[in-house]
Batch of 2 targets.
Target 1
Amino acid sequence: MLEICSLIARAGRTHFWYDELLTLHVSALQPFTVLLSALHAGADGMPPAYYVIVRLARLLPLDSQITLRLPSILGYIITLLGVYWFTRKRLTVAAGLTAVLLITQSPFRSCALEARSYALIVGFLAVAAVLWQKVDESRVWMAAFCAFLTAAVACHHLAVVALSIFAFAEVVRTVLSRGVRWGVWGSFLLAATPFLASLPMLMHFRAIFGRSFWSLPDWGTIFSTYRLYVNADVNLGLILAIVILVACAVALPKMVQRWRNATPEAHFPIPEVVLICGFLCYPALLVLLTMLMGSGYVPRYGWPAIFGLASGAVYLLRNRWRDARLLILPATFFIVFAMRSTADLRPPAAADPNVASQWWAHLMEAGRNESTLPIVITGGAFYLEAVQYAPPSLRDRFVCVVAPDAAVRLTGSDTVDRGNRILSRFVPLRVEELARFQSAHRRFLVVSDGGRFDWLTPYLIERKYPLSFLSRNGDATLYLAGQ
């Protein structure tokens, strides 16, 4: 409960960033058929099922910064429950709590504060892993396993890769037990249906963005992904994953010998160890898949690996958890967790709901003599944030100028420009083509954040367009363009 309260408190005072603003705008489209049209057009890559969940959350009479993030908070909480139940079935309470607290101290916690589907996917997969342990006990568990696995794939198409992890673990279980669980295999087929149904939309999305997506994977992406998962200067995530994989490989011969002797396994049985290792390898599988498909990849796609990292970490100490001295681990983690969560409940000393408006007012003070000129916000991501948080008196003057060819040449990507152009067909945004805008406006103001998607500023410099510096506020700079 402490964690839920602290997350809601943080969510209420945390501004949306670009991807979350896509969720905000698309989820507000009415009726739902218009929302579907926007997704099919390529306004966002999230599937319709996720937006059904978000729209249900938006029915609550709360601030949108909370309601849009409630599904992610829910996903984060059920992730914690899932990893505890999965670990507790084979190890001690202390082991289960340690696995949970490891996740609370990881950067995965930030996914609970993102109005995107990543935390929800991890939560569904974690509970599916728990139900997979129990499917032999009741048909109810089998049906629930199918439902959670299907929900994960329905919330993000790349979650279909998790089906291969479960399938491989199930193959190992089938070989060892010499019995096929047809209900499990049927669940895999049903869980794949959301992915198959969304293939036309995915192919269209790939045709629009795939060639110049802002984050195309390479071999180094695997290493940077694991490094992100523990937020350390050294790649502790990859080191931990390798240590767990090696430990499992070393333990495998003895586990096989116990199986041949019909000796009950005291800890995780072989199929569950295979499942843990599969989750550890999930980001690497995604990178390889997206490289082969020529699709985009960002590290948050691979967050289901946190389930493997947490359960695998406590597996390393499987023979020590009954030692009372090891209780110092969950106790230490809990103290850090409680201090952090309690701190999140306290609002910042200088909290001011109008701080964003004040920031923009300060920046635009230098342009007060040009109060009739349009204001071009460079970088499509910066543009959406400006429209959301700048003073209302300025928003009607904001323009997002797009030129995909120039954007690709100068920044290597036109993803955001293309996305904003599609979104403007469904949301009242002022998105204009570069040539048309230049022909209509000889003079205009430019606000540049210097970000990686700002192609316009180097374009104007390249064309020797007159730029006069007016003001700087933080990372943003105000120019007057034209004579």
Note: Residues 236-260 form the longest helix (25 residues).
Target 2
Amino acid sequence: MNQLLVQIRQYAASGWRHRWKALGLAWVVCLGGWMYVYTLPNEYRASTRIYADADVILSQLLSGIAVDSRPQSQVELLQRTLLSRPNLERVASRTGLDLRADSASARERLLTGMEGNVRIQAQTRNLFTITFTDNDPRMTHAVVQALLTLFMEQATANDRLQMENARAFIGQQLAAYEAQLREAEQRRAEFRARYTDLLPGEGGGSGLEQARGRLTALRGELQDAAQRRDVLRQQLEATPQTLRAQLGGAGDPRILEGERQLRELLLQYTEQHPAVVAARSALADLRSGRVAPSGGGAAVGPPVANPVYEQLRVRLLDTESTIASLERRGREAEAQVARLEALARTVPQLQAQFAALDRDYDVLRRAYEELLQRRESVQIAGAARSGADRVRLEIVDPPIVPNEPVGPNRVLLASGVLLGGLGAGVLLAFLLVQLDRSFYTLHDLRKLGLPVIGSISSTAPRRSQVLPAAAFSFGLAVLLLAFGAVTAAGPALIARLPSLVARFLA
């Protein structure tokens, strides 16, 4: 402890020799710092308060029916995106703030400083303020007004822009999925058409089963047709081909011939023509029986074709034609069944491929239907936004041009300068002490290893020591008084400091 006190006294005694240098440096630092502090430009701040009221009732009504981006989240999104770089550039262009920048780097610094000077603070859930600080009071008002205008524009246009983007995106996706769905349908139809005989049909059966069923039906029809043919042949063999009719009856060939001749004559002549009259008289004699046959007994006419026989033969020909057609169709059916049976071992692989096509088609169809539902939801949400104000904005406090500066805090800065000046003086004294090679105590001499006989005390009167201390205290007090005057008088005194200092030195 004694060693520490000795060390402190040693440093104090050494530093006392450099007190005027330290005090001069403190004066220089304080005067320069105070002049710089009071030459700083004033800072002005303009602000506005906005109240955002979200339509909660309409949001609850649209919940689960239409796409709803929650109005409260829209307000929060506007707060976060208001200070985006494009918005800051737009505000700088509207207010003329960009005229301060004459290069790309200066413009970048301007936008960065502007972003740091703009503050958006939420006071409550729906009430928040927008403030901006600048050296020009009119510019602060213009920037806040531009931010307010931009916020109002985005509140009305941002949601509409998002809705249009959503419609365009869903439209593009619908077109893409519709094209993919058509391609899937085409591939599915082509695959089914290519392997329609091996794949299950609409009724659940495959083409092979249907071909076997058709072959069985054709064989049954062929068997029935063969039986009908055999029956018709037996009937045809038992039926005479011709019949003989007795003359003078209704089937007399002479009467038939006379009627034919009479019809031919009537086509050429009238009823009074002699040839017609003669033919009609001969036909009447034949019908009355007055003309006898040339032989005796019952007259028999020439043989005529049996119509029953002709009908049976026609039916037999039709049946044979049907049998031939059935045999041909049966051979084709047998060939088709044989081909399908040869391909039957590939059915599992084909069914797996068809199932994959069906699965892809179902996935695309479900996605397409989901997009259609989303498009309807977007349409309903768009109608709700256009028919009602989702977010109602009210300006509680409009921005005004500030008259009083809000900064800088010159008293606090001047106090910091005073502390810095005193600290600079103490540091200078400490550095000079470290560089000083003088001896102040017997202990310092004995450290050299030389014999020390003794020490002689100072013979100077105490008044000679009091006056330097009083002078140093006076200089320090004047520095503190100058600090008080600077903080009280402000910029007016700082403006006169150079002339006062020059007068004092003169």
Note: Strands lie at 44-54, 118-122, 127-134, 242-246, 300-305, 391-397.
